[in-house]
Amino acid sequence: MKDSTPTRAGGLGPPVAPGANTAVASRPSVIQLVFREKGALYAAYIPVFTDGGLFVPTTRDYKLGEDIYLLLSLPDDPQRFPVAGKVAWITPPNASGGRTQGVGVRFPNDEKSRQLKVKIEEVLGTSISSSKPTQTL
Please, where are the H alpha helices in 9-124? Predict the structure, then answer.
């Protein structure tokens, strides 16, 4: 059986020196999210966000509203889609129901995101209305 978990590789950015001013805006995280199977994409897709969004499994601590940059690969599509999103919800470690720790990333309100949302929904087809549980809301 294939693993339906998306592959994730992310940069954490440079370490912060002791005593450094951490109030300065840091660069957004860059996370590469590769969906090889439609089932994994279904489990991560967040259709309730107007412009779309995805659940990103991660153990890194994020704050609501924090910028996060995704490099997204969809099943059977060689193209990578860059998305400059924002953290819209956080699933903490040891969440109830055995939910995976991570963040919900809301896509920005722009034309590229609308096109990406349509593309994701085309890939998912009729499964988008499934009652099968997901990692999202």
Answer: 38-44, 111-124
CA 6, CA 110: separation in Å to the nearest integer?
25
Give the contacts of 78 (CB within 8 A, at least 6 positions apart).
none
Helix ranges restricted to H, 45-136: 111-124
Q: How far is CA 137 from CA 21, 42, 49, 89, 91, in A?
A: 35, 12, 10, 9, 10
Name the DSSP class of 28. P
- Distance, in Å, from the CA atom of 20 to the CA atom of 30, rounded to the nearest integer, reads 22
| Location of structure tokens 């209305």 | 129
Question: Does the predicted model carry a pTM greater than 0.70?
Answer: yes
pLDDT digits (tens, 9 = 90+) for 14-70: 444 444 444 445 677 899 999 999 989 998 999 888 889 999 999 999 999 999 999
How far is Cα 44 from Cα 62, in angstroms, rounded to an integer? 18
Task: Look at strands 7-11 and 80-91 and give their pairing.
Answer: unpaired
